[in-house]
Amino acid sequence: MDLTAFIRDVPDFPEPGIVFKDITPLLGNAVAFAQAIDALAEPFVDAQISAVAGIDARGFLVGVAAAQRLGVGFLPIRKAGKLPSDTHQVSYELEYGSDAVEIHVDACGTGDRILIVDDVLATGGTLAAAAECVSMTGAAPIGLAVLIELRFLAGRNRLPNVDFHTVIEVV
Amino acid sequence: MDLTAFIRDVPDFPEPGIVFKDITPLLGNAVAFAQAIDALAEPFVDAQISAVAGIDARGFLVGVAAAQRLGVGFLPIRKAGKLPSDTHQVSYELEYGSDAVEIHVDACGTGDRILIVDDVLATGGTLAAAAECVSMTGAAPIGLAVLIELRFLAGRNRLPNVDFHTVIEVV
Q1: Domains present along chain B, CATH in parentheses
Q2: Which residue of A has its CA nearest to B33?
Q3: Helix, strand or coil for residue A134?
Q4: CA-to-CA distance for A14 and B129, rounded, in angstroms?
């Protein structure tokens, strides 16, 4: 099954000139979504993953499915102010301004091997910050996986030196 | 397994006087989370569900897992401005001010039977608005399910007259 047929291009979202990769058609098709999650998780089946971390909010969708596929727990990495308990926070630069992500300090810890997932890799800032969050708990971010990689943005170059895997590449 | 042991009370979040029900310990335990999702989905196994709708953002976590459990697709209901394509929008009142949720107009349609899920039922405003969103597509919101119901807020009284199911009741 060609998974790219389930990714919808939405022009000028969230702002003029940006073509947004909409994964809702993929999510809506149980067979296609299962195939995508199998492909995303496959390289990590024997990697002794302790938990899957997903990034707020679309990374939650991919992350929970990947955690179930791998038979492990899920932990959320969220925008600042959303997690209720004590957190580690990492800020990162945007084109204009900055943003921050957080992880619960007790979400994972020393000895844990964490797979971090998101829907799309664009410039890589969020995913790199998420990996730094995981490291601050003492756990090891041993892999990064996304459904869609926007190769033309070269976000891969900003990622930490861990196993990176993508299901669909947009050149 | 007692699932309530995996729900953490966080006092004074998101504001003073509120005790927040934190589901992250439940999400982090694969066995407990699977048990919770089995319990949430069980009444709907033979209900010919077409898709599960989950509400942004913690409802995504519960919703994707429930969709996989039921073998159907998932569709997101999001805060205003987050969905990239054409949407129906429903506003609802908060204690101070109002909020709104949206659904893609093509997320579902006539003949579809939709189970709507969220993590917590509080006052019921969001879940009722989500059900109205689903109805605007022509689909039928045939069930509502949450992990945790805060009975003392009586949100159940604000819900439309469809099958409602909760896994954990807080009295």
Answers
A1: 3-170 (3.40.50.2020)
A2: A73
A3: helix
A4: 24
